[in-house]
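Support request, please re-run this one:
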Amino acid sequence: MIAYLCGSIPFGLLVGKLKGIDIRQHGSGNIGATNVGRVLGRNWGFLVFFLDMGKGFLPVLFFGRMAGDWIAPGTPGRSSIYLMWGGVAAACILGHLFPVFLRFKGGKGVATSLGAMLGIYPYFVLPGLVAFGLWVVLTLTTRYVSVGSVGAAAAFPIIFAVFAAIRRDLWGGIAELWPLYVFGVVLAVLVIYRHRGNLRRLSQGVEPKIGASTGGSQRPS
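Re-run finished. Output below.
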């Protein structure tokens, strides 16, 4: 519940209020960093991105620190601890996607998902950073944030599986890590699903690129 409430903090809306606007009435109407950046400027978008990332990172990292030796390889019952760890991360992300403070209408979850992944240390840190690097490459080459987000989300479970195989001696086998595999797949599906509108606009050729104005308060259909 604490993780969900942390995830529900609408930083995009709060930053918009500080600038005197309701971000939900401008651009795409989304409270995430991408829309904030388009409407208020790149620096404000970066601020919201890191705030949204932090609300996913801190609760998940805190749980990992509390779990301590229980998540060490070979520990009996380790899988159940991983399941709870993934549950904390999922609660943060669901809080951002469906915030109780905004009648359950939130953002796309990319920044919060990245923060939650980085909080699952060390298992998701390297795969998460590689996925983030892929997001940067795809976003800069296509100039579509949605392409970078969907591509990175789809690739993350594969990247994690590769790292888990390489570091099997340190991390343990799939019998222990399966909750993290499942969480990675569910996370990828959820992020892609939340971008279904962007994918539709991409197919129609009307998805705004980086640097393009969304036309003030006009929302894309």
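The longest helix spans residues 42-67. The chain has eleven helices and no strands.
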